[in-house]
Amino acid sequence: MRREIPMAITFIVGFVFLFAYFIPHPPFNEFENTFNDSFSIIAAFAIWLGALNLIKISLVKIFKKKSDVLHSSFIVISFLVIVFFGFYDGIRGLYADPVFSFRDQGTGFNWLYEYVYSSLSATMFALLAFFVASASYRAFRARNLEATILLIAGILVMLGRVPIGDLMTGWLPDAFQISNWANWIMNIPNTAGQRAIMIGIALGLVSTSLRIILGLERAYLGGD
Amino acid sequence: MTEESWILPNKKTALVVLILLCCFSYTAGQTSDDSLNIVKDSLLTPPPDVTPVMPKNVTAEDIPNDAGGSIRITWDLSPDDHVGGKVKEYRIYRSDQIDGDYEEVGASMMGQAGFTDNSAETGNQYFYKVAAINYQLFNGETVWQVMSETDPIGPMKSTAQWFNMDRLNVFIGIIILCGSIIYFILAAKGGKKFYIRKIAGIEEVENAVGRATEMGRSIYYIPGINDMDDVQTLASMTILGKVSEIAAQNDTRIDVPVSRSMVMVTAKEIVKESYSKVGRPDAHQEDQVRYLTDDQFGYAAAIDGLFIREKPATIFLMGAFFAESLIMAETGNSIGAIQIAGTAMPAQLPFFVAACDFTLIGEEMFAASAYLSREPKLLGSLKGQDVGKAIFILAILIGVILESFGVDVSRLFSVR
Amino acid sequence: MNIKEVIAVILIIAFFLCAYFLFPKPVEFSQTVSIILTILLALTLLVIGVMTFMGRYIERRVVFLFVGIALTLPFFMQFDLPVPISPEVQAAYDELEKLPEGSKVLAAFDYDPPSAPELQPMAVAFMKYAFQRGLKIIIMGLWPQGPQQADQAIQTAFEVIPELEDKIKYGRDYVNLGFQSGNEFVILRMGESFKAMFPTDIYNTPYDSIPILKNVKNYSNIDYCFNFSAGKPGTVEWVQGAVDRFNLKMSAGNTAVQAPMAYPYLQAGQLDGLMGGMAGGAEFEKLTEHYDKATVFIKSQSFAHAVVIVFIIIGNVAFFRGRRRKK
User: Fold this and answer.
1) Would the pLDDT of B21 be above 80?
2) Which domains does chain C have, with CATH numbers?
């Protein structure tokens, strides 16, 4: 019964959702919203599972002096600092006049968000610029015909999407300007490729979803 | 005898001029205030001939294929509806009785010949009037307003439909696709064998795990950053089961740092079950599957740190990824790990192809469970999916040919 | 961390501290210096190319260093680059131009601080343009930080054009409804009722007492939609939910990575126009004649693209040389 009940729930809910897409009449029009609200609520409560797991593993590493003691200490300290300021500013704001939220400007939580979290997130995102360069340096090799076409298309789009391309070819007739070639590559071959991949993915999604609904795919329940 | 100034002959004259100047200034000031008031007062009364001609041919109809509660009102534009004309906007009034009190339910700007009333109650009947409005503003306030409204039309009821006819094409498509999948699953159940082509990335899974075993290093499995409601994550969990079975057989540690709590719970179950299945429950450790953070770049930073410190020999990146995909893949490449990636996010595929050794593109990741298990029913579903794809390709070809010859078939394929 | 890495981190921090205190005002190189630096950079890359040809391959950290220099140097240089207008950005601009004064535009801010460097300049350009044209803006977000980014864009617009701050009034000319969780389901529910999803604005003012929202029940009362998106939920969800189901007219601004995914919808006419990445932002600034951050940043991006292309060529030189040696 451990697996049969979840499979039965999956089957019923799967088909109800499928038919609800075609039936606008109440109550079918509300199913999607109701179930997704339920999922959001469950996921919100489930965050505590993850947070407790993280703290538990970090504390075990610290106290048993396993590897990564320094990093685990940072995790625990950062967690406690953010939680402290969240509660401190939240409670302070409730009793202040006028009432303010812990997320408002001027609170410690907001300071940490703006000057620590936002900066770190932007820094990680900025790493992409360097990684794209090193990945391109390594991957764009003219090994064969297809790779050469990819290489040339990549160079044309990279030059055509920035003003340097027009600086180099702006004096040529329209048909020979790099920006027009880049636009053509983005509008025609790129769009065709994107569409093909998206159609393939959609079909794969339907097939996988049907297998899950029919109970053929049971790995997510913890085994076959 | 003193010399007289040619401007002001004497003091008396100067005084008279000064008094006259003061009177003039006072009067001018008064006059300008008065004239402002006169201007404002004159705006309160609408000037003649500003009333617009009312719109004609007002119709109301229930919006089809919905859950009720919406009625569409349309009209022909007033002849005075043009730039510089007398119509500024149209207002729509509603009542539940033809001679009852009408309340305003909305407005449309000039040039717009329709309005959707979304506040109607399903099953209630309503009457509508449309008024063409002209008004004058002064400092942001309306100083006069005129309107000409139509006779009431109705009664009109909004109703809920049991089938959305706009989605009939999708319904037929689903029937064809699901029908072919189910047909081939049943055929496989009946003993029919199906061929599946080689998928390089999945073929290499055993070799990749073997490499980690030989090097005495661990395997990292990253299931993406979406939650269990994403089919990609579900597909990733299926592959995790197979990979952890092979890792358990080879006695190689597999680590699964995750980004969502529910994925952590599911992955823990799957990994534990896999170890038990191959008879190695003792080798399983609780901290193999651990939660890091929900935050996208926090997760990427943590994964990068783990890669650089732990230096795994094999990395699997399977699931839904976003901008963090290249950060993880490049870091994995920099430590010399063999990387097998799979995702159905079209924007991230190029990054994985550039940085990883093997990439499962889109539907190949969904096919992985069938490929790895070789279970006939799952292979049958792949065959059904392929037949469905063939039908759609044919439909696209026919559509392209027809459109090229000027036959408009786009409505057949549009989705509402 | 080993001792070398610790020393490297200390040196980098020391470099930036020195730069911060020695150069309190932004440094600007003259045209001559800019040209000399560009030539020096090109010569260094040429030397690296020659070294690669001679069999002395560079490591990836050298690539990182040059990309860093290519991104940073243009900020100090004084030169202009021509910005060509692509058809999709022109289409987005033309659609906005068609809107009469007083039109209600729904602006969906679906991005967060990491994507702000790419999307914030186009958001600022959009807000400046919208306020000057007298469009009424209804702001909301499907990402938690989106509405805050919108507020920042408005503040920046007011700083750049101070007259706007006196002319534009919150509640009458624009409103910020804030963030609502639920992703694409928010989009679908807004098709029935905005108020159901946003009973109050970001300052807890009830929906019905906000003047700009009078008579705005759902998409049918909106004249246009503009979406700034960095991922999911974003432009694709808005097209599938709002455009397809509720006939909403829409243009979008996306990050450069997301933009290729939006092209099929642009081609199909579901999107009127598209601004892709920094280039899209720079083109929109040129069309609206308000040159700001995107126009500055695109210079940096141009240099970086050129350096990456040079390294790709160098990489191929290394590849072919390696192949020849094997033969």
Assistant:
1) no
2) 3-79+297-326 (no CATH), 87-291 (3.40.50)
